[in-house]
Design goal:
With 270 residues, the chain is mostly helical. The chain contains 11 helices and 3 strands.
Length: 270
């Protein structure tokens, strides 16, 4: 079990019941299972509201996509704002309250500017990775393709299978640190008032300091993800809430201590 760092007050908490712990705890591998279990318990407290919120987000995304390119880009920028809303909802459920639809939009009134910066930086990072992948395709793969006929194109693509796999691995290698900078940033901003850059740095550090529990967590969530896929995507209405709620549980164990008493390294939150 790791040592418990001293709670600090450098950031102004927006929930007086929580004390911020920085740089965050380094937990045992089994904590990854704890997060998934705590996330499921949070989902089970208000399953209907979780599903309704997911459907509403899909409707919002579809409505915004009516405006070509701009609408989809704007929705990407707002991802962190909606993520912050789910954090507020999780905190309400954790304290015995309700999940209300207004929680979903809490990020628009609490630290909206900082949350938007996080969304913008994450989107920019994704665009850069996409450009790197595109450049790899143009320089390495495309020149070797014979465009004489359909069959020759398919044969050329097959012959470049290793190069295509390498391109995918490069993209994944770049996505992992980007996801690490984003993973815990919204809760750190909306619950503690941290600046966006400070929150992203803290998130990045915490993810890699907790590499083993994050690995276990990812393996555990593979099971419900596969289940969601074999239900033609309908299971995503449960998987996404589980992912969101378990991320909140991870943030609570790594970065916070209740004002009354610190959270033990392997204690379940609920």
């Amino acid at each position: 079990m790791s040592s418990i760092e001293t709670p600090v007050t450098s950031a102004q908490p927006l929930d007086e019941g929580l004390a911020l712990v920085v740089p965050g705890r380094s937990l045992a591998a089994g904590a990854g299972w704890d997060w998934a279990l705590a996330g499921w318990k949070l989902f089970a407290r208000a399953p209907l509201m979780w599903v309704i919120s997911m459907v509403l987000l899909v409707v919002i995304a579809l409505a915004m996509s009516i405006v070509p390119l701009v609408g989809s880009l704007l929705f990407q920028l707002l991802q962190s704002v909606f993520a912050a809303g789910f954090v507020v909802a999780c905190r309400s459920l954790e304290r015995g309250g309700e999940f209300e639809l207004e929680h979903l939009f809490a990020g628009f009134t609490r630290r909206f500017g900082s949350l938007l910066v996080i969304g913008a930086l994450a989107t920019l990072g994704s665009v850069v990775i996409l450009l790197v992948l595109l450049a790899f395709v143009l320089v390495v793969i495309l020149p070797g393709i014979d465009f004489g006929s359909y069959s020759s194109v398919m044969e050329s693509i097959k012959s470049h299978g290793i190069a295509a796999l390498l391109a995918i691995l490069i993209a994944l290698a770049l996505m992992i640190p980007l996801m690490a900078t984003y993973w815990f940033a919204p809760p750190l901003v909306v619950m503690h008032g941290m600046g966006p850059i400070e929150a992203m740095k803290a998130s990045f550090s915490a993810c890699f300091r907790n590499f083993m529990p994050m690995l276990v967590y990812g393996v555990v969530l593979l099971v419900p993800l596969i289940g969601a896929m074999i239900t033609f995507g309908l299971g995503l209405l449960v998987f996404w809430p589980l992912l969101i709620a378990s991320t909140y549980a991870a943030y609570r164990q790594i970065f916070t201590a209740d004002e009354a008493a610190p959270v033990p390294a392997r204690a379940t939150m609920l």
